Amino acid sequence: MNFGKTNRENKQMRTIERIMEGRWRIALMASFLVSIISTPLIAQPLGVIQGRVIDSISGEPTFGVTVIVQGENKFAQTDFDGKYRIQLPPGQYTVTFQMVGFETRTRQVTVEAGQAVSLNVTMGTPPATEAEVVVTGRSLNNTEAALLALQKKAPNVSDGISQEAVAKSPDSDAGEVLQRVTGITVIEGKYVFVRGLGERYSNTVLNDTMLPSPDPEKRVVPMDLFPASLIKNIRVIKTFMPEDPAEFSGGLVKVETREYPDEFEMSIGIGLGMNSLTTRKQFKSLDRGGNDYLGLGPNDFFGFGSDRWGIPEVVDTLPDRLPFEKGDTLGGLPVAFVQFGAAQFPNDWTPKEHKAPYDRKLSFSIGDSKTFENGMRFGYIYGTSYSRKWRKTNEEEFRYESQNAGGLSIITANELNYLIPQQLFSSNVYTEEVLWGNNLNLALDLGNNQQLTSKTFYSTQSEKEFRETIGNTQRPDRLDIINETSQYTASEIMHQMFGGKHAVQYSQTMRPHLIEWHLAFAEARRDQPDLRSRSWNRSSGTNDPFLRLGNDGRRFFSETEDYSEDLKVSYEVPFEQWSGLQSKVKVGYQAIDRTKDFRSRSFFYIRGAVAPGIPETWPIGGEATFHPARLFSGEYEMRENNGGFNAYDASQKLHAYFLQTEMPLLANVRFAGGVRVEDSFQKTRTYNTNPTTLQVDYGCNLEGDIGYFRPALIQAGICDRNNNGVGIEEKTDILPSINLTWEAVKDMNIRAAYTETVSRPDLRELSEFAFTPYFGAERVRGNANLDRTYIHNYDLRWEWYLSGTEYVGAGVFLKTLSSPIELVGQPVGGDGSRQYAYSNAQKGEIRGLELDFRKRFLQRIEVETNLFFIKSRVEVQEWLTQQAVAGSALSPLDPTATLVPTSLERRLQGQSDFVYNIKALYYIDKEETMSAGFFYNYFSDRIEVAGSEGEPDVIEKGTGILDLVFQWQPNENWNLKASVENILNAKYESTQEVPISNTELPFRRYRPGTNYSISASYKF
pTM higher than 0.90 for the full model? Predict the structure, then answer.
């Protein structure tokens, strides 16, 4: 669907071509073939000494340590994971570990033929006391103990969840996984709120590289695009370090995909599931070929089905500026051509009914590594995960109009407002979803601590939805309404990263320097071909038939492409501070180039000059109403909407320079921090691909000022305001970072941090384009005048590590926000309908308390709980500014004002006052092969949409989700799991408060049902 720019291509072929050609061919084909032909490691005839060397202060693997076997001509150097390996004949040996600036360590070891003996040490500057080392092969950090050790020695405040913990949960994607992390809430199962701050105040990186978003309406990456089985760990960085992107305040979510294993492994898994409201019950969906019911069609099985849903080629190849309708608009089109083109649109409007199948899930992974005679090592891992599920929910939506009991202004005297019901809709929503993820990671160690890596990730998610709605409106007319809406959406992310680590040894008396780099290419796409909507109505309180609306039969097509390139290089120099303690300084540069393009076209049917030959009453389907014969006869005509915004082109260029130091101030006090300078330029141009004749004649699509007559053209409605839809945000920010860690006693840290970060408006949010996703939903519009948010962050945290897997922590934080961006609701039309718009508040403040606890009781009971309390305050506008906007003396889109707020002060949008998670795991047998656990997640009330112009805020009510998991590993190969999710079938509900009576009325509510699943995996 190229909207007239090139010939329409088959989307499946385009996707495959991306994978097969250019960088994707290199990444997925050549490298994968090489990896597959690699053979498992062959046992060596000699014995082996192997292990890891850990820095006793930082807890990080130490590379460049020389490991010498005394009396033998054998030595090795540790790699970037702190690992070494030496082959020796059987016998007893003395092994010495040497490194400039570290105390030399000596160990005795016995080697047996055909056996590998582990020898792990810690090294430090002062006389070091040997500490316990958690051995995890290479530095995989995929167990709970390893991730907790990493958190303990990290220079900044962080939390996370490991691959081991994910395996014990019922979670199927990263969105569900993140709900288990301290201070995290997840909206709609995919958008991350960290420390109560909305998704805009978090950022996501995959393998330390930036990601674009396939969502045309939000700035963040949907976390449900990452299958849980492909994840090594997820860390949430809560205090900023200069080497990381500074565009976050709540947290930086670091997703790491699985690394290659030390030896050959292969696993396969299968699972089935059901939903209490859906499975084996009647289900409605649209079918356009392929075997959709079984999920075995050549396209829909993997979520590539949108090629059958696009605009017909005869219409899609029309040039821009030429709307598809008859008449003389820009020259117009012949009637016969319009009739022929309209007849090419698929004429399937009525869903097919069948019983919903069971959910299904498949996974497969294979990995290995091989060491060559010259010391080089190659490793690979490939993993794929596939899931398909069906869901039916019943959603109720209510809309109201504000009135004032005292006859005063609903804006200035809103404490006397009350709500009058205007709309009530009840919808059955049928959704079918496919998620397919792939991960291929390759690594080549060249020896002498020179390493090259390639990491490839591809994920696609497709969703078919059919929504049938019945309800009524009270104003301006009392009407009963029936609506049917269907849509198909396909989202995908393709990410390729090449990277390297290179040790630079200038002399044997100096510690090696380190060069790190990566170059990443990523593309996110979202295709929404043929969103269709039909409506009928009748006068309320009658038994009249439902009649078709005059402009019934709306069809909407859209496509979003978001492409980014990320280049980063850093140079790290170790040094000794004034007391001889080992330190390091790092300098670096990062460049991110991102472009995002959105195109849409919408069509509708109207009655023609010829009287309809059949009734237009419900439930006569669209197949009869819009039959090609009726289009050719002139009973109906198809027209295209034109004149309003339907596209935007956007770009961002970011250049960042950073200086970062990690240095002990005392033996037990560490400093980490520095400064990062970010130079960002964002530009969004919103326009119409099919402008009206007047808009073309007066140059309304041109950027910049259109001359002396611009105000008159805008007032006449010919051209749009806001620089013709051009939004520009350009800033250079100098962002400091200070992190202090005091190890008060052994295994106890006290951390303090001060950082400054930013949150920029998304490219979509700078666009004036407005869109309604389904019947009865509100339009969402951008704002070209948005400013970036600047944030001051203060953190204080206490941590006590009781053992390798036990931990107690408490922390407090304070954040002050300048010009926070929020989604504000506006009533339009006086009939209960509204639109949403993005707007800057003046300032905000958020403060909170975090508590975290992990402990074992009675040897077999493992308890983990985390909770946080948050209070926030947002000052929306000064009172005089509010009055100026309310009196039309100041435009609500003026940079000095926001939309007219209902409340001058309130809490932050999307912030819950209280969130907690509880996990309790009971090991049924002493060997811990069988366990039962329950997981509970709760969030308290939060503002879903902030009110404006007298409308009260929409409040999403607090909800708790309870899950149960049973797991059994009968041997080292099999893993069996059964789970029940949302046992209580919790209700999701939003309300609006009636100010004068302090009561609540429903706004939206539904129940998702309870999910049951069983799965089995086998490891070869």
Answer: no
Residue 616, amino acid: E
3-state secondary structure at position 845: strand
- Identity of the highest mean pLDDT range in 66-70, 394-398, 416-420, 647-651: 394-398
For residues 731 and 924, what is the distance between their CA atoms, to the nearest angstrom?
58
The CA angle 75-80-83, to the nearest 5 degrees, is 50
- Write down how long the chain is: 1020
The DSSP call for residue 212 is: -
If you search the block for the tokens 């950082």, which residue do you land on?
755
**Rounded Cα–Cα distance for residues 288 and 347 (Å):** 10
* CATH superfamily assigned to domain 359-607+642-1019: TonB-dependent receptor, beta-barrel domain (2.40.170.20)
The pairs formed by 415-421 with CB atoms below 8 angstroms and a separation of 24 or more are 415/995, 415/996, 416/995, 416/996, 417/950, 417/952, 417/994, 417/995, 417/996, 418/994, 418/995, 418/996, 418/997, 419/952, 419/992, 419/994, 419/1001, 420/474, 421/474, 421/832, 421/1001
Tokens (6 digits) for 751: 């951390």
Question: If one looks up domain 144-269 in CATH, what number appears?
Answer: 2.170.130.10
**Angle made by CA atoms 502, 506, 510, in degrees to the nearest 5:** 100
Reduced 3-state DSSP string for 363-421: EEEEEEEEECCCCCEEEEEEEEEEEEEEEEEEEEEEEEEEEECCCCCCCCCHHHEEEEE
- What residues does each domain of the chain span? 47-123, 144-269, 359-607+642-1019
The full DSSP string for 264-295 is -EEEEEEEEEEETTTTTSEEEE---SS-TTTT
The amino acid occupying position 421 is P
Q: How far is Cα 386 from Cα 296, in angstroms, rounded to an integer? A: 13
Answer yes or no: are the C-beta atoms of 936 and 980 closer than 8 Å: no
C-alpha count within 13 angstroms, C-beta hemisphere, residue 830 = 4
End-to-end CA distance of the chain: 44
CA–CA distance, 505 with 425 (Å, rounded to integer): 70
Rounded-to-integer distance, Cα 445 and Cα 424, Å = 64
Rounded distance, CA 802 to CA 49, Å?
31
The answer to whether 213 and 562 have CB atoms below 8 angstroms apart is yes
Task: Kindly state the average pLDDT of the residues 459-480.
Answer: 88
User: For the chain, what percentages of helix, strand and coil (3-state, to nearest 5) are there?
Assistant: 10, 50, 35
Report the C-alpha dihedral over residues 539, 543, 545, 550, rounded to 10 degrees.
Answer: 0
Q: Which element (helix H / strand E) includes 574?
A: strand 554-576
pLDDT tens digit sequence for 505-563: 887 777 889 999 999 999 989 898 889 999 999 999 899 999 887 677 889 898 889 99
Token output for 114: 């055909």
pLDDT at 294: 37
Residues near 521 by Cβ (< 8 Å), separated by ≥ 6? 23, 495, 496, 497, 564, 565
For 86-98, what is the HEC assignment?
A: EEECCEEEEEEEE
Phi and psi torsions of 819, nearest 5°: 60, 50
771-817 pLDDT per residue, tens: 665 444 566 777 777 888 899 999 999 999 888 788 899 999 999 98
Query: pLDDT tens digits, residue range 548-600?
Result: 876 778 898 988 899 999 999 999 999 988 888 888 999 999 999 999 888 88
Q: Helices marked H in 584-737 — which ranges?
A: 622-625, 628-633, 693-697, 710-715, 721-725
The answer to whether residues 562 and 523 touch, using CB atoms and an 8 Å cutoff, is yes
Mean pLDDT calculated for residue range 937-941 = 88
What are the φ and ψ backbone dihedral angles of 219, each rounded to 5 degrees? -90, -5
Predicted confidence (pLDDT) per residue in 899-936, tens digit: 566 777 788 777 888 888 888 989 999 888 899 988 89
What architecture is the 47-123 domain classified under in CATH? Sandwich (2.60)
Answer with the residue of higher pLDDT: 400 or 295: 400
